Amino acid sequence: MHAELGVGALEEVVDGPHRDHQLLGDLAALPTARGERHHLEFPGREVVRTFVDGEGGRAGSRAAGRELRRHPPAGAGSALGPVHQGRVCVGLRRQERGADPGEAGGGVVQRVAVVGAARNGMRGARKARADPTSARPGRPGAMPPRRHAKSSSSPAARELAVRVLRDVARAQGFSNRWLSHHLERAPAMDPRDRALCTTLVYGVLRHRERLDRHIDRHAHRPQGVRGELRDALRVAVFEMRELQRPSAIAVSEALKLVQTLDPSGRLRGVAQAILSGVDRHGETLDHTLASASPLDALEGRWSIPRWLAGRWLKQLGAERALRRAEALSLPPPIDLRLDTAHADPSAIVQRLREEHPVAEIETVPDAPWSVRIRGAGDLFYGALHDEGLISVQGLAAQQAARLLAPQPGERVLDACAGMGVKTLQLAELMQRRGTIVAVDADPKQLAAHEDVRRRGRLDEGTLDVRVLQADLTADVPALDDARFDRVLLDVPCTGLGNLARHPEIRWHRRFEDIAARVPLQRALLERSWRRLRSGGTLVYAVCSAEPEEGSGVVDIMRAHPESELLSERTWSPENDGTEGFYAAVLRRRD
């Protein structure tokens, strides 16, 4: 029998073309009282795992240490099944270099091999617990479970960051959702530690390839440094190279974390040797990575996947591609849209300053309805958000509804309405008079519209907001029986314009994903065009700067003699300081 011990997971080793492991059971959600033992039964074998709680750490608590026992607790008896009494060997597992870094399971720290047990005997073992991330493990974009029991103690910031990074990689989900999920389970965590954890998660994802270059340069066997160990080292190297944390502090904290992951201490020396090398030679390596050819610099220094770096060089040229990559390596501000119908913008900004005195708040020239803010923490909660006076929305994404310019009393279709951020913006622009039909295929997204209706006061005035779940590429009588004055179509896409706010997208997307999105985008545009009345206006928008998803899709409208392209624009991080975003304004001639 071969098994892997990672943080919260015991994994079976199996054969496969792209992976050599399979998640067997997630033990992290089980009770972790001091000395409590959990048992996993395999055919003819039992593994007993003991959790040992510990105290200490910056926030006054530390997550439980973990160790693996070969023997059952006293009095366990035969009801739990036989226990193998063989010799236990511990070592690192190798990963096939071609394996996807986002594969489920990912965990490295120890290999526990029970001598004499047949490897193939494990293959029929059932999972002890289903993967909590999704009904289909590893599905791209999987969301974390909504509710879990909260921990009685808070983990340290760096340990929690590693947990988030592991979950993002396993589920190929959004980093912000997994981060919120874990922070909600640690309500006692010091606000400074919460901020540090957030910085570490996003920073590691933005600079992952560069951090790996540092780690691999000083690792004796780079392929053996993986899973939790690699993420812990990425956190430390990010602190040393990007945050300019004193190396003594970064190394010391990293070694504490490695000790938590591997109480046996076997990995401490590996981590210390790698980080010592980074401390001595990190500046030299960063210079080497930055001074390489543009393609190699984009990949190695700025952590842009090579396939995407090649596209940018061809489309933009070396100078602009490098400026884009550098802009995407920086933490972006949080962009807010202000409801100027219910309060003066200056009054809202004043309240923001009072509620977040240490935050940096920047107004946007020629856009009094927009504010950019840094250092304010989570703005999805608080009185201003609850009153509907602020909405979190990217600065470029705010432009789509403004380009549509809906008027009071009109009938407007918000196609692909998502969670209702654009729906609320349309209502604001229409002075809450007229009809908005908000449609999306995902019922989970539409569930957020009730909250939008409440905090946005959408029952005021003569506004009629209808929320509808439907496939917009099919016949929908509720949409097809009467045409719309205006249509806002913000289509599903690769999200490659959001690499700063969602840096995990760098590692989850592939070249073929771009072409795979285009048929749906074209179908949505064709159907939405049929629902637009003569003389009406349609805005096609996409949170991607890749031409195939933007102008390439709009080009199909040339086949419609009644269509007129009024304007189109692409916003970019390097030129506009925003997310990458494309919007086109189309008019249907009478």
Q: How does this model look, in words?
A:
This protein has about 600 residues and is an alpha+beta fold. It folds into 4 domains: about 130 residues, no CATH class; about 35 residues, no CATH class; about 60 residues, Sun protein, domain 3 (Alpha-Beta Plaits), CATH 3.30.70; about 190 residues, Rossmann fold. The protein contains 21 helices and 19 strands. The protein has a 7-stranded mixed beta sheet, with helices on both faces. Strands 3-2-1-8-7 form a 5-stranded antiparallel beta sheet, with no helix packed on it. Helix 1 packs across helix 2, helix 5 runs antiparallel to helix 6 and helix 5 packs across helix 7. It is globular. The N terminus is likely disordered.
Quick recap of the structure?
This protein has 590 residues and is α+β, with helices and mostly antiparallel strands. The chain contains 21 helices and 19 strands.
Write the layout of secondary structure elements.
Layout: E1 2-6, E2 9-12, E3 22-26, E4 37-42, E5 45-52, E6 65-69, E7 88-91, E8 110-114, H1 157-171, H2 175-184, H3 191-206, H4 208-218, H5 227-241, H6 247-261, H7 268-290, H8 294-300, H9 306-316, H10 318-328, E9 334-338, H11 345-355, E10 360-364, E11 367-374, H12 383-386, E12 390-392, H13 398-404, E13 411-415, H14 421-429, E14 433-440, H15 443-446, H16 449-455, E15 462-469, H17 477-480, E16 484-490, H18 505-508, H19 511-530, E17 532-542, H20 551-554, E18 563-571, H21 573-576, E19 581-588
Parallel strand pairs: 13-14, 13-16, 14-15, 16-17
Antiparallel strand pairs: 1-2, 1-8, 2-3, 4-5, 5-6, 7-8, 9-11, 9-12, 10-11, 17-19, 18-19
Helix pairs in contact: 1-2, 1-3, 1-5, 3-5, 4-5, 4-7, 5-6, 5-7, 6-7, 8-9, 8-10, 9-10
